[in-house]
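One thing: can you check what follows?
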Amino acid sequence: MDKGLPVHHLGQPGKPALQRRRVYFKPALAALVFASLCLSLQYDLWLTLRTSNPTVRVAFNTEDVTARCKALNVTPAPPPDFSARTQSDRYEAGTLAVLIRNATIWTGNEGGTETFTGDILLDMGLIKEIGTNVAVNDDVTIIDAEGAWVTPGIVDVHAHNGVMSSPLLAGATDTDSHKALAQPWLRSLDGMNTHDDSYALSIAGGVTTSLVLPGSDTAISGQAFTMKLRPTKERSSSSLLVAPPYGLNGSDIDYSIPPLWRHMKHACGENPSKYMSGVRMDTVWSYRDTYNKGRLLKEKQDEYCAKLLNGGSVEGLGSFPDDMQWESLVDTLRGKVKVHVHCYEAVDLDAFVRLTNEFKFPVAAFHHAHEAYLVTDLLKKAYNNTPATPMFGSFARYKREGYRHSTYAPRILHDEGIDVIMKVEYQISLADMLVWLTLANQIE
């Protein structure tokens, strides 16, 4: 019964079935011949490549590589002409000089007690003169302060301007990446929103310069950058930077001059455990595992440069060992990076101090450091130097690890010879509180 199914016949009336099958055999034979030809050609090509060794070799520039090797352990420093400069590298042509007259000037000298009434001349992006009856030409903007206070600009060493956006909107929240527990290759600059309202809020509080850190949700959240908060004609994130590392924009590096300082953010305690679904042991292991990768790369570089600088043959030496993911950690191990650690409790401070001695790198500062005043001797055991302690004056008890802070902590740390820096986070309290905190927590 015909049910609409296809009907196949092996042959047609009057024609043998074998002849019908040959119709299908010819395309198969052609395909087989074509495949054999392709295999033959591929074998010939493989044989040619194997015997001719067609590796593209880049000319070995002994001079450049030697300069890089010699600069491996050079300590960062300002540019050679920094003290002699007559113009800021951020100066914008056409900006008039500014003379502030009749100001009550707080210099910050003599333990923060020196003040006098006088004038301040700003020109070419620099403070040119501080004194009385400063003479200027006509092409200058004059501001009569009428006795008002003028102080040095505040440098905020713990800021998230532009990465933790203000107002806080999901589309511009770039403080933390949760892709991994340790990501030293990330950079706060790459998420710095130039439309952020926090710049104006910070300036209103007297802040002129900020160290923009990634967040504290992970063990190593990335590299930090220093920026000036004033707007620029270019309106770009890069134009706000202060002393960015050489080579940041892909340009060649002059290894004959010292490098500039870099900055790296780490975090201890509750945050990495909470946001990365782990415990403190996971966080500390991620430090050790990550720094070990950096140490292995550093050892390869040292071995490579030893062969080159000891006058050995460069034949077969290859290119300089490098890795974009881990190069910042190598610089950290060489003492070229200011390490900033979000760390509250004694248990976490102890773990990080041990880490610094295991891998032999210094820490610039333990931020928040609520229990630092309880373990001052421990802080002094950190590798190479005693870290500074940027901290809140009285803001505390907002989470468990912040419970043991004390308003006496800054004084206790100061008396122990440990540098104390007063700070806020503008997302938590307005930046103008920095002025109040500075006055309320005078140490001297």
Confidence is low (pLDDT under 50) at residues 1-25, 51-58. The first strand starts at residue 97 and ends at 106.
